[in-house]
Amino acid sequence: IHGGPFANIAQGTNSVIATRMGLSLSDYVVTEAGFGFDLGAEKFFDIKCGYSGLSPKAVVLVATLRAMKYHGGASLSELQEPNMEALEKGIANLEKHVENIQRFNVCAVVAINKFATDTQEEIDFVKKRCREMHITAVEADVWAKGGEGAIELANKVVDVADKCTCTYQPMYDWKWDIPRKIEAIAKQIYGAEAVDFTAKAKSDLKKIAALGLEELPVCIAKTQKSLSDNPELLGRPKDFVVTVREIEIAAGAGFVVPITGSIMRMPGLPATPSAENIDVDDDGNITGLF
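Above: the chain sequence. Below: its structure as tokens.
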């Protein structure tokens, strides 16, 4: 279940009511927490679980070889080609996400979203590295095989969830002041060296304190393209500074929104909508899809 909006600009999770409804109707509930673990999952744990008392039994971290090769320096036009060198560099990004899961004390499974161009050597390399991190990695071949291609993954997730005895640990205490909460996420989850607050952000902090809202959780708006607030820093960047340029108050939602880097909270739409290229002929054949 995913209700949006996305976790780069908002909380990125479905409602507590939706999850509780799912739990009342089924033995297992799978819910998306948008984009990388540094965004959707951090907010799922620190905001949604904080308010609801829910404690997930497993995290499914979806990964593609293409994304890891891109984080390892391969260009977009080269992602379909075998490239062990780029994969070996880019897997550092996956490793950081796995470490972040472990920081929350939750059991995990890595789902390798398989593409037709993936090689067995590349897949085996990722599985081996995951074993070294004490995490199981399973291929999910749903593009080629549909639901049948996800049976192994589903069985593994059920097994991990049933055996997990962990209780998630939040990244911060809501009673901390706002800067300390932001710094905890930036340093422990993103891997930042420090956090810089602009004059506008400092003014916003004073307003938040004056309104007695310092004990609200934080919902950081950050680019989804990097662990940092700079979309150009790929892989596992280090020694970077996260810049908080302003902090908005979402009192009704129950959190404050530190806005970092150059992220736009209202992404623009393309000049030409994709729908204009989609058509259906007299025989029911659809053309113009992605």
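The chain has a mean pLDDT of 92.
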